[in-house]
Specification:
Low-confidence stretches: 162-173
Strand order of the largest sheet: 1-4
Distance between the termini: 41 Å
Number of helices: 14
Largest sheet: 2 strands, antiparallel
Structural class: mainly alpha
Order of helices and strands: HHHHHEEEEEEHHHHHHHHH
Strand content: under 5%
Shape: globular
């Protein structure tokens, strides 16, 4: 809203300095500050409200140290992240930008699924919350919308590189095209088009690339949101690692949406994607502000309201900047947590069928509980996971030039 106000003040009223709001860097910096301040200042009030409404965490007995002390801690704190992200975005971002609209939709959609899950757990006293199949239906629905918009919308384009003719020394003009190309990290010729996957169908197969692209988007959103959900098991783990991944995606969005930086780095230029930096900045600020109350000992838990939302947003951001193939590295903590559960369950079922008694790979899954069982304090586990997330984030940034 402020963007349009100051645009009017600059172009019509001719007020000096009003044009500063045209700069993505200025609005992104302001978004971080506002979301951080909002989450710290108003976060405590929201926590007190949740406490007054007796929206407390019901802790299952898993035999973990310090577990009983967490019973009754306010949950559904993901509301803090959602509100303090959306307010700066509505104030500072260009609300007609297709990428910003998709991220707002993702925030509200996944937030609603998570809220319903937490509501059932808290008020209906059902520890299982929303049935798994309904969660998946919600995630698939979002993936269907996001994938369809990214594929069919004329506003989602990439810019073709200029074509140089060595004989006449001319350069073809640059132009924006619809494309399902993505980036393969650490390769010199690093663009991969999803249409290749159905090229065997014939010369006109590219018209049906959406049959491959949309299911891939659905899978990524479902996997990352579930990964974030599984990671949210100890104080500060999900919010901290997500803030690191978000920061890296913010850099990707900024350079991919800037024609000068994209040309210098020789990466895909994605018109209008730079505006996502404003949303990403607000989201990162809200995560850091949430950590003020979520670090050990946590005064609030994000619940599925927060964890599902975080995972959905990160997935959509990665897909929008054509960096979804980096997700296993960028979201390495989510990936390993997810993998630990899959391996544990699969191995248990396999050994039970073969030997008559189920065996385990880890003392407990997800992986962070394994280390708790080994006697590590959760603060040490969280800090070391943060360090790993930082290393993985730096490794992802290196992919910009290391090819």
């Amino acid at each position: 809203m402020l963007y349009y106000l100051f645009q009017y003040l600059e172009e019509i009223v001719k007020i000096p300095g009003a044009g500063v709001f045209q700069y993505i860097t200025f609005r992104s910096g302001l978004a971080v500050i506002l979301s951080l301040l909002f989450s710290i200042i108003y976060g405590k009030r929201i926590i007190n409200f949740l406490h007054t409404m007796q929206i407390g965490e019901t802790v299952r007995e898993l035999g973990l140290e310090g577990q009983k002390q967490k019973a009754g801690t306010p949950t559904m704190g993901g509301i803090i992240i959602i509100i303090t992200t959306l307010i700066p975005v509505l104030l500072l971002a260009k609300l007609d930008n297709i990428y910003v609209l998709l991220l707002i939709l993702t925030t509200l959609w996944m937030g609603a699924i998570g809220f319903l899950d937490d509501y059932i757990k808290v008020f209906k006293k059902d520890k299982d919350g929303l049935k798994g199949r309904f969660k998946v239906i919600g995630q698939v629905g979002l993936g269907l919308i996001v994938g369809s918009v990214l594929y069919f919308s004329p506003e989602v384009t990439v810019r073709e590189a200029p074509i140089k003719d060595a004989l006449v020394e001319t350069v073809a003009s640059k132009y924006d095209v619809k494309s399902t190309a993505t980036t393969i990290p650490f390769f010199k010729d690093n663009e991969f088009d999803y249409s290749v996957l159905i090229s065997w169908m014939g010369p006109d197969a590219s018209k049906y690339t959406w049959l491959v692209f949309i299911p891939i988007v659905i899978f990524i959103i479902t996997a990352v949101s579930n990964g974030a959900n599984l990671t949210d098991g100890i104080d500060g783990l999900a919010a901290g690692t997500s803030a690191i991944s978000t920061f890296v995606l913010g850099i990707f969005a900024f350079v991919s949406g800037n024609v000068i930086f994209s040309e210098y780095l020789d990466i895909m230029y994605i018109p209008n994607s730079g505006e996502m930096t404003v949303f990403i900045s607000a989201f990162m600020g809200s995560l850091i502000g949430f950590l003020w109350y979520n670090t050990y000992p946590a005064q609030v838990f994000m619940g599925d309201t927060g964890s599902l939302t975080i995972g959905g947003i990160i997935a959509v951001m990665a897909i929008a900047v054509r960096k979804e193939l980096l997700i296993p590295v960028l979201c390495g903590v989510f990936f390993v947590e997810n993998l630990s559960v899959v391996l544990q369950v699969s191995y248990f079922k396999y050994t039970k069928k073969k030997y008559g008694q189920g065996r385990r790979i880890f003392l407990m899954s997800p992986l962070h509980h394994h280390f708790q069982k080994k006697g590590y304090h959760e603060s040490k586990i969280v800090t070391r996971f943060w360090i790993i997330a930082i290393l993985l984030g730096v490794f992802c940034l290196v992919s910009l030039k290391l090819r």
